Structure formats: C-alpha cells, structure tokens
Amino acid sequence: MFTKTELNHLYRYGLSLTHNREQAFDLLKIGLEKYLYHIQFRDSPLNPQQLLCRMMKNNFLDLSKCQANGQADRQEKGEVIYLFKNELENLLVEDNELELILSSLNSDEREFLFLWGVEEYSLEKMSEKIRLSKGKLLSRLHRLKVRITNCQYKTNDCSKKGP
Amino acid sequence: MKSHLSRQLKEYYNAHALNTGQLEHLMKLQRSNIKEKKPLILNLLPLIFSGFLVGGFVFIVLQLSSTVPEKVMTEVSLGHRLSMDADYKATSYKEVQSHLNRLQFSLVVPEFLNKNEWIVLGGSYGRLLGQVVGLIHLKNRGNHQHYTLYQQPYSDKWGNEVISQKYYQKDGIKIKAWREKGMLLILAGP
Question: How far, in Å, CA of B133 to CA of B100, rounded?
C-alpha cells in the first residue's frame, strides 16, 4: 500500500507528464486502479512505485496518442551531441519564468526535467527509466537547453506548446 | 531574481500536492482492494464448500433412494439371471450342503416350499451385499420354470426390511423373501 508521501510523489510525476493538476490526479488514479488490479493476480512487485510510474507513463502515452490522433509527440532523431549535464545545471532562470518554460515544453521534456531536477537521477538511471540510450538523452538535453534559453528571451515562443 | 533551474524545479513540484479529498480517495481505493485481495484458496473456498454441499446432498439422496431392500433385490435379480446353471449338480438340500462345504452355516429345507412342488437341481456359492450365501437351484413342477433360492443367516441389519413385503418385482424377476429357522430365504424366479 502506498503511503500519502508516496502518492504525492507519484502525483508530481504525473504532473511532470501532464502539466495539469486534474489530469495528473486522473493519471495517478487510473494508474493506481490498474496497479491494484495487476497485483491481484501476481506477486507484489519488487519496486511498486516504479511499476506504477511505468503504468502512468503508458497510460499517458495512450491518451496522448488518442488526443493527437496519430500525431505523436516525438522527438527528432538528431545526432548525438556531446554535452555535459553541467550545462543544464548551471542554467539560471527567473523565478516567475518556470511556469512559462514548463508550459512551452512537451511531456517528454517535462518528464526529463522532473527526473533530473527533482528526482536527481543520474544519466544512467534516467536512460534506464525512460528507455532511451545515453546518446539520445544527451541530444534531448541539448535541445532542451536551447528551448529553455529561447523561451527566456523570446516570450512569444513560450505560447507555442508541445502536444 | 534568477536561480538555478534544478532548484526552481524542486520548489515548483514540491509546492504541488494532492489535496485531502484526493488523498483520502486514493487511500480508500487501496484499502478496499486490500480487503478484497485474498489468497486463491480463499477465493475458491465458497466453490469448494458448495461442491461438498451438493456432493453430500446427492450422496444422501442416492443412499435414501437405494435402501437395503432395493439393493438386495437388485443383486438377487441379477444373480438369478447370471447363474441359471448350478455349479454343483444335486438332487437334495443335503447333497447341496455337502458340495457347499465352505459355507459357515447350514442350509435349511424351507417349509414354505412344498417338497412335492419343487425339484432341487443343484447348488452354487453366491454373494449378497458382500456376504457369501448359498444358492439352491430349483425347478417348479407346475410351470417347469427355474428358480434360485438364496440362503443366508438372518441378520437384523436388513432382514426386517427385506421380509416386510410379500413380493418384489425387479427387472422382470419376481422375488419373495421370508425368515425361517434363523435364516433369511429369498426366492427369485419368473
């Protein structure tokens, strides 16, 4: 059984995907229902939180696919760019800018930021969780930095949300 | 005022939490599920119990419908049809007794059957409700039909029920049971 702290943690993960409080709650609720159904017929998983996170993510992707009607939120398959994580860590943003920045990002990017900034995952762990190679992750990291920087200087760009 | 992105992210997400109602809803969801979650054997328990109940009921019904007289008559009628020929040819009860020397009891000459009307053809070993019985093969002088006479020491466990009726008709075989000289006698024939 998940504690209240764990539920809140999972809710924040949901929020990183949806960037919407109600949708994050719905995502958690549906995920929890699926999880409870799942463990009825199987042994309890070694890492329940991780399993529920994966269920939430899958559910979110299913919903996104439906909403986008096939126009999935896909990252470009760019070449691997050599980039140190420090670049993101040294990035400074205005206090009131974060909400706008998050709004301008797509779910993959927000999830990436959540895992990096809040969960403090290493590149290896993030690669394992998101199931992307380190190269692709670094590529995503670079694009993310570019988008955040652009967003900081071109406020108008922030209104262009990812699907 | 500028600060690190990671710090802002932490503050931003930590500022968001489920409200009391949402938390309660999710906790309740988990509690109700835990109550429902039982080991497989417990889930099957009602089914197993029902199976035993139905099985027990069927057993009792079968037992009641298959009373002692019913079982005896079924065996006698079948035995009569299967052993029409005697294993040992004989012309008297005494001679039959000498052939069936493994019987733990002595055969009796029934007064119920008039000596002048019946001819002894021979004897055989038989079984009735798991017990060894003596079979005497007879022929009726009047209708020239073959009959089988079962003899076994009388026992309270089923004798009263068997002899309570005058005649039984089972699978086309007419059966008469009576008690005589401490023996249970059952005559089966056409």
Answer: 10
Burial of B13 (0-12, 13-18, 19+ CB in 10 A): buried
Which residues does chain B have with pLDDT short of 70?
34-43, 61-69, 157-166
Q: What is the pLDDT of residue A47?
A: 85
Closest CA to B126 of B170, B72, B176, B164: B72
Residue type, B187: L
Residue A7: predicted pLDDT: 92
Give pLDDT, residue B153.
87
Tokens for B61?
A: 């019904």
Helices A134-153 and A123-130, axial angle in degrees (round to 10) = 100
How far, in Å, CA of B113 to CA of B181, rounded?
13
Q: Is the dihedral of CA B86, B90, B91, B95 positive or negative?
A: negative
Residues A93-111: pLDDT tens digits? 887 788 888 888 888 888 8
Q: Are strands B131-140 and A92-94 parallel, antiparallel or unpaired?
A: unpaired
CB contact under 8 A, A118 and B8: no
Give B175-186 pLDDT, tens digit per residue.
888 888 888 888
Q: Establish if A100 touches chain B: CB-CB under 8 angstroms.
A: no
**Chain B contact set for A4 (CB, 8 A):** 18, 23, 27
Query: Of the candidates A31, A26, A81, which has an alpha carbon nearest to the alpha carbon of residue A59?
Result: A31
State pTM to two decimals: 0.48
- Spatial contact of B18 and A8, defined as CB atoms under 8 Å apart: yes
Characterize the bridge pairing of strands B173-180 and B183-189: antiparallel
Distance (Å, whole) CA B94 – CA B26 = 92
Higher pLDDT, B170 or A69: B170
Mutate to test the interface with B, among A2, A3, A12 (most CBs of B within 10 A): A12
CA B172 to chain centre: 23
> Is residue A94 within 8 angstroms of chain B, CB to CB?
yes
Q: Which residues have C-beta within 8 Å of that of residue B46, sequence separation ≥ 6?
A: none
